[in-house]
Amino acid sequence: MSLVVGAEPLSSRLSGLLWRRPNLLILLLLLPPLLWLGLIYVGSLFSLLLQSFFSIDDFTGQVTHEVTLLTYAELLRPSNLDIITRTVTMAALVTVASAIIAFPVAYYAARYAKGRWKAFFYLGVMLPLWSSYLVKIYAWKMILSKEGIVSWLAAKLGLGVLLDGWLSLPVVGGNSLSVSATGTFLVFVYIWLPYMILPIQAALERVPASLIEASHDLGAAPGATFRHVLLPLALPGIAAGSIFTFSLTLGDYIVPGIIGTSRLFIGQAVYMQQGTAGNIPLAAAFSVVPMLIMALYLWLARKMGAFDAL
Amino acid sequence: MTSAVSFRAVSRHFGSVRAVDAVDLDIPAGEFFAMLGPSGSGKTTCLRLMAGFEQPTGGAIAIHGRDATGLPPWRRAVNTVFQDYALFPHMTILDNVAYGLMVKGVDRATRRRAAEEALDLVKLSGYGARRTGQLSGGQRQRVALARALVNKPSVLLLDEPLGALDLKLREAMQEELKGLQKALGITFIFVTHDQVEALSMADRVAVFHQGRIVQAGTPEEIYHNPRSRFVADFVGSSNIMPPALTARLTGERRWASLRPELLRLGRWEDGLVLEGTLVQSSFLGAFRRLAVRVESEMLHANLPAGVGVPGEGSAITLSFDRSALNLLDDAP
Description:
- The complex is a heterodimer of chains A (310) and B (332).
- Chain A is built from 14 helices and two strands, in the order H-H-E-E-H-H-H-H-H-H-H-H-H-H-H-H.
- By secondary structure, chain A is mainly alpha-helical.
- Chain B has 332 residues and is α+β, with helices and mostly antiparallel strands.
- In chain B, helix 2 (93-103) packs parallel to helix 4 (137-149).
- Chain B: One of its GO terms (molecular function) is ATP hydrolysis activity.
């Protein structure tokens, strides 16, 4: 009897070929996503970048297809710089607040929650992600409105004066929480919090309890243990989470559109320039800003050793 | 002289589980002390009570005469070598070793020097700049040891220190640990489930069973005079003689234990005699292990390898000295 069976079916010959040449298989598997990423995504990104180097003719309102830095110069006008500063400050504040709120939650989940409580934790963190973004934001608009539950509760607790005092401050204040920068901040923190909790929890999950005990054993009280062991080991998680909260805040145009003052954020500026204003080059230049900031941010995080413990 | 560590009726209950149950313990300063027992016997919980990672639900713990009940781990003059070594992955070896001094506020130059000395002590000089991931298991173990010793603890706790090492390395480390303890004069307290490790390293051994110390003494006492069936069986291997068999041999109706290496082939003068059937004979290199059925009991004898033995299935006579028979305290 022959070991080699003749007249193999095509499918069998194909699997044989792929088995002998694993590189071919990898190529076949990667080709579709590479095409997608390479052409559609990078391609459109490139064309966006290109657009930002064109400018608009003030008189005709037409895009002049000549490479120029005029649009970027326009970006540096005080009113536009204002938008950038406002957005970056908001993104930074939202990131810091999210990290501070997320850490204890993530720590509890990683260290103490077991079985049913762990399931409850995941459900609690993920549930808000399942419901519509817009529904949540409008819900917050009600919550933060003048007649909303926050004002009502503050009044009941006798803290109405405090709330009114805060709202009378410049920059952070406004007529009510729902039309103040404070409101925008609160909603941003709420919306992006899960993206901070989950990476921190994943990082802390990988820290064995014995490391904490070893630190205590070597004479470090809880504060020192947090500074020297827990925080450095959680840093990759915090960095990952902050990439989410920071970049999502930088690019969002819906939250500040619904909750907050009439002052613009980058996302809104992009939306406006490419829509009503019809200034595609400026819109493109605006959208390059978050990319540059994120690149800078990642580079800094790397420099500071945020990814050393990975 | 005060004890390095003393327990007075110390208990640690987890709900209805009595992990440690009214344990009394006195470990003199400078002793190499082993806590031996199967998993779940309470030995590790005892160690964690000494380190301060657990708080007792009852009783009092003193370290060098000072009450340590309720004292957090960072305020105890004890240091621990963890079973998984627990080295900090984000620090170099030198920073790991210097950690205890760093949190105590010792200046950089001094703690560097001390850490290098400690690495020297465990024969790892020159490894300071490496990361924990670049070391083998045995080297990590040494770093963990150096990291604890650099703090000059009055008591060093070791949790299954050799558990993760392979046999050769384990034997080498056993000798080294013993030498280190002698040279430093620090009290070493270690937890192990390996009776060979406990017997070979420790000055004194406490055998744990179900949250209690069932026997404590020198390795010789524990080995030659186990007081209960549990200890006789757990430490080394023993033939456990039921009361009926002991009664026929000695007239005393008690449980007894008999080490297999104390049995001899044939009939001895002044010896006690067992007659039975040879069931199995296995060659184990240094000796030959016989399984012999005596009445309804299966007994084992380890004979020198050169001794000629009858074939399996034939009748066999074994004898032993009266003093080899160790009477146990278990109720008949």
